[in-house]
Amino acid sequence: MMKQELTVKSLDGPVHPDWCPGCGDFGVLKSLKEALVQLEIRSHEVMIVSGIGCSSNLPGFIRTYGVHSLHGRSLPVATGIALANHALHVIAVGGDGDGFGIGSGHFLHTMRRNLNLTYIVMDNEIYGLTTGQASPTSQEGHKTKSTPRGNVEKPLQPLALALTMGATYVARGFSAEPKDLTKLIADAIAHRGFSLIDVFSPCVTFNKLNTYAWFKERVYKLEEEGHDTGDMDAALQKSFEFGDKIPIGLLYREERPIYDDSEPILQQGPLVDQPLGIDKETFDAILAETM
Questions:
Q1: Nearest to residue 6, comparing CAs of 56, 50, 60, 46?
Q2: CA separation for the pair 115, 257 (Å, rounded)
Q3: Is residue 4 part of a domain?
Q4: CB 214 within 8 A of CB 246
Q5: Cβ neighbours around 109 below 10 Å, total
Q6: What is the pLDDT of residue 273?
Q7: pTM of whole model > 0.90?
Q8: How far, in Å, CA of 266 to CA of 270, rounded?
Q9: Radius of gyration of the chain (CA)
Q10: Are 87 and 57 in contact (CB under 8 A)?
């Protein structure tokens, strides 16, 4: 039987995206498809897991395996899938509210374990699905439905958190820079370890501050500045840079053992391919220890 040609079009999902016209998430979806095509990863080799929010609808818009999980719970679900079948390319997707708000605890501990996952966050600095409240990455002073006098909370710094909690691939993309974003996603998927790509993905409906024009005036590419992606101190400095100049691109990459390497049973292949149960000798030994 002849294989279907792998193209961006062949990865179109069963549901047409229902995001607002102009939403930055369209660019992320396209770059993700292009990255899979570049890496020649076929649909049945990919699992995409999301939480709740506008961007978390993405699994329905791409032809791969997918799970639309609970609010803030994409990473623990992705962890279970990756450990059960580490032959899959497991990619978690979601928004800044989902991942850095209710999901922040899972975010920290998944990175600490250096699980072999890719996490793409469509960061629009607002709660879009619930029509425009301040999110964990909203800027101080930003007037929203929940902060009509201006946001008084200091915004969370996801890249700094990722660097200090053990992520081994840390990058920032911009949905209006599709070529660069595709490369970041492809490299993140190919990387062995936890990869974070925080993507500026403007909400054209509810965030009138952090617009495409606002970002285009400020972003610059790290690769054009000679940034050393192996220098943790330099990466940390760049992670806090958010003002007149904002860096995009790869901040940091490190090769080190992943969580799977610590589990002998995973060296025998994916759990889904291993026989269920244990032999009588092992069972008797366990029983003797507990009696």
A1: 46
A2: 9
A3: no
A4: no
A5: 15
A6: 85
A7: yes
A8: 6
A9: 20
A10: no
Cβ within 8 Å of residue 83, ≥6 positions away:
115, 259, 260, 263, 266, 271
* Distance, CA of 155 to CA of 94 (rounded, Å): 18
What span, in angstroms and rounded, lies between the C-alpha atoms of 190 and 281? 40
* Cα distance between residue 21 and residue 25, in whole Å: 10
| CATH number of domain containing 243 | 3.40.50.970
Burial class (CB in 10 A: 0-12, 13-18, 19+), 79: buried
Question: What domain range is 188 assigned to?
Answer: 9-290
Q: Token pair of 170, please?
A: 């840390």
Q: Distance (Å, rounded) from C-alpha 124 to C-alpha 219?
A: 15
Per-residue pLDDT tens for 38-68?
Answer: 999 999 999 999 999 999 999 999 999 999 9
Exposed e or buried b for every residue in 1-24, given b needs 16+ CB within 10 A?
Answer: eeeeebeeeebebeeebebeeebb
- pLDDT tens per residue, range 80-105: 999 999 899 999 999 999 999 999 99
Tokens, residue 81: 């899938």
Tokens, residue 207: 């965030």
The token pair that represents 11 in the structure block: 């990865």
**Overall number of domains in the chain:** 1
